[in-house]
Specification:
Length: 364
């Protein structure tokens, strides 16, 4: 396994669980803050507006997160529900309802007025709409990686793997789960690494409005700031917010880790425009990286050059919640040569030139 972030740790756990002798190598000591799996919280949700085809994987992911909690004896998932807010024709509002209809999910559709009344921390215009997804919540990324790696007997920390070939010559199979370092190892997927910033803004008014039982995680589609998102308070005095995409393209060696007003001013303005009871005072920040495919769907596939090599690039800013099910799919691909899950949307060949072979993944 190259990488012990969310995906490598999950794949190592699922392989070890099936009895494979897995060695997980990481260039740092995970969980760490150099890649994509840090910052206290990640959203998990079910009414997936990005595509109804993700919903069966999400249902499995919830079960596997609960399995991990019992295996590790850790609390990782806090249910809060999720609000998707936007205009009536926004992708978030329309897509969430489409996914819910197709898969019979438990949602509520709220007018702007109902949103304001039920969730005091949100400012909403009458023409806004919201979808409440009840099967949603928050995952702890650092705790999850620790819990998954606890299930893996051989984790080799501070071990930089120079090339896929150097491992392929020693092992029966190699899984590449290198997050934003993937472009150093894999040249057949057109990935772009994007800088992202999270900020914790102080609660100015009433911390009760923002507790996890009262304030669902939210994604809001805005004209001014693009897609923004936020979490309930976990410390009783601040809420974490971020912008989805709109970051500078970078790489892990050159990323600007320092956060300045150019990063924070749009988040402050977003909170002043779309939230109530949150101040512009910034308590904490982190920088992180998205590793994006051109269509923002994942790549979960064999290498076109060697079927013993599996590549997991499930980021594009929304991969974390899927980690255990993606780890299990990786175990299917490595141990069975294919999977029963539908991963047809995640083929690398969708980006490749016609001479790159497209492997079959199906197993009945
Ligand atoms: C700001 C931000 C917010 C996000 N919010 C959400 C969210 O709310 N919900 C959601 O579902 N997803 C979210 N995501 C996406 C999610 O966090 C990522 O999809 C996921 O963490 C990616 O994990 P990874 O294992 O692919 O990458 P990483 O965590 O970066 O892990 C890669 C690992 O590989 C190691 N490595 C790399 N190269 C080598 C090498 N050559 N040799 C050895 N080791 C190597 C690295 O040290 C690292 O530990 C967010 C991401 C960011 C950045």
């Amino acid at each position: 396994m190259i990488g012990g972030g969310a995906m490598g740790a999950a794949a190592s756990w699922r392989l070890a669980k099936r009895g494979a002798e897995v060695v997980c190598f990481d260039r740092y000591s995970p969980p760490h803050a150099n890649g994509s799996t840090h910052g206290e919280s990640r959203i998990i949700r079910t009414a997936y507006f990005e595509g109804a085809f993700y919903v069966p994987l999400l249902r499995e992911a919830f079960e596997l997160w609960r399995e991990l909690e019992s295996a590790a004896g850790s609390h990782l998932l806090t249910m809060t529900g999720a609000l998707y807010i936007g205009s009536a024709s926004s992708e978030a509002v329309v897509g969430a309802q489409r996914s819910a209809k197709e898969h019979g999910l438990d949602i509520d559709v709220l007018s702007g007025k109902e949103l304001r009344k039920r969730y005091r921390g949100h400012a909403a215009r009458d023409e806004d709409m919201a979808v409440l997804d009840r099967q949603a919540g928050i995952l702890n990324p650092e705790g999850s990686v620790t819990a998954m790696l606890k299930q893996v007997p051989d984790v080799q920390r501070d071990r930089h793997i120079e090339s896929i070939e150097s491992l392929a010559s020693q092992f029966d199979a190699v899984v590449v789960a290198a997050g934003p370092w993937t472009p150093e190892l894999v040249d057949w997927i057109p990935l772009k690494v994007e800088r992202q910033v999270h900020a914790w803004l102080s609660i100015a008014k009433d911390a009760d409005w923002f507790t996890p039982d009262r304030f669902p995680v939210f994604i809001r589609q805005t004209e001014q700031f693009g897609d923004v998102y936020g979490f309930p308070t976990l410390d009783g005095s601040s809420v974490k917010v971020g912008r989805h995409h709109d970051g500078d393209f970078t790489d892990p060696e050159h990323i600007k880790r320092r956060v300045d007003d150019a990063d924070l001013d749009p988040l402050r303005l977003m909170a002043a425009t779309y939230m109530r009871g949150v101040s512009g005072h910034v308590r904490r920040t982190v920088t992180c990286m998205y590793t994006n495919t051109p269509d923002h769907d994942f790549v979960i596939d064999f290498s076109p050059r060697d079927k013993r090599v599996v590549v997991l690039s499930p980021c594009s800013g929304h991969g974390f919640k899927f980690a255990p099910v993606i780890g299990d799919i990786a175990a299917d691909l490595v141990l069975d040569g294919g999977t029963k899950r539908d991963i047809s949307h995640f083929r690398a060949a969708r980006f490749a030139s016609p001479d790159v072979p497209d492997h079959d993944h199906d197993r009945d």
